[in-house]
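>> Question from a student workshop board

For tomorrow's exercise we were told to take the sequence and the ligand below, predict the bound structure, and bring the output to class. My setup keeps failing. Could a helper post the expected result so I can at least see what it should look like? The ligand is glutamic acid.
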Amino acid sequence: MAEKLNVHEMALMQFHNAADAINLSADIRRILEKPMNQFKVNFPVKMDDGHIQVFQGYRMQHNNVLGPFKGGLRYHPTVNTAESIALAMWMTWKSALVDIPFGGAKGGIQIDPSQYSKGEIERVTRRFTYALGQTIGPEFDIPAPDVNTNAQTMAWILDTYLLTVPPHERHAHIHVVTGKPLGSGGSEGRDKATGQGVVYLIEEWANDRAFPLKNATYMVQGFGNVGSWSARLLKPFGAKMVAVQDHTGSIRNYKGIDPDDLYQYVQSTGGVKDYPQAEAIDPDDFFASEADIFIPAALSEVITEDIAPKLKVKLVAEGANGPTTPHGDRILREHGVSVIPDVLCNAGGVTVSYFEWLQNKRSEFWDIEEVDMKLRRRLTKAYRHITNIAKQHDCDLRTGAYIAALLRIENTYKHRGIFP
Ligand code: GLU
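>> Workshop helper replied:
Here is what the output should look like for this input. Compare the format with yours to find the bug.
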């Protein structure tokens, strides 16, 4: 049977699975099924050649019962209402399960940034921030980097947003975005945080089953922030990267690809294509590579019912959001492949975003050791908690993670009730 779910339907299916497992009340289900607020805007920007182009921007705010809306902004042609809602829901579960006081939101701009100059991207970003207006705010909705956005994007958003508040209040609004450059209120360790979290969790998984990471092999899809950091941080364990795929091509070398060298190459060329120390392979062959660990760190709906049977790995560590479809999940389970689900596996990013937000509010600067130690502690605790829930409910870690999140949110709604 062909799989025709879009990411939004997929996110809902995962949610209902877990809701069924814990008999979540029908009332809470109805609330969590829908985003609280949806913001969509068409805004004009002057291009380098003088003509005006109109872009579509989105911000979907799923839930804020545990704290301000939180989540990234992505610049990609696939950005739309349904995708942003799914990603916003995933942010709600993610923050809840690592126990940070945030809700979930997501958005971005429907754009292929590679087609525009840096000046154009800056103007697009600033005009979008202006259009967002009070939709975002340091105690209300706090954006962060996501696909094709980075610390520079956050610096432009910060600068533009601050100009919309009275001068004497500006410094008090610096936590309106996280993932900022270090000199603009960013945190040590935020840039690598998602990849660092992926690696801490791979370590937990490996320790649990006495699986040696020394000489373990891994393959990575996507060599942007999450993929490249995960790859580079796994190297010191003596693990060997054997295959990489990104939007430009697929490469393999069973003798090992040096992640640091590949990173330098990708920085200068824009992709893994034609990397001289590996052989170019067919994109479909990539998935069937011999490796122990697969880190999908690109876009959603990659491990489908067609791709899942090809994977030979023991572990899928989901750096991306939504890389595995429900059918793909079922096949991985049947084949005995472990999955560290996205909502936990990539939660390092939002966790260090929370640390950045706290440091801004307290005018503090934590050193990298403190950030890493606190990140590790939180992720390890969530991993243990979710593993226990999965055992109790005899379910996979994804459902376990959802259950952990839903119980926390349900509990809060029970205390507060519904107005009026
Ligand atoms: N975009 C990242 C995510 O999907 C980080 C979100 C954040 O730091 O708010 O988790």
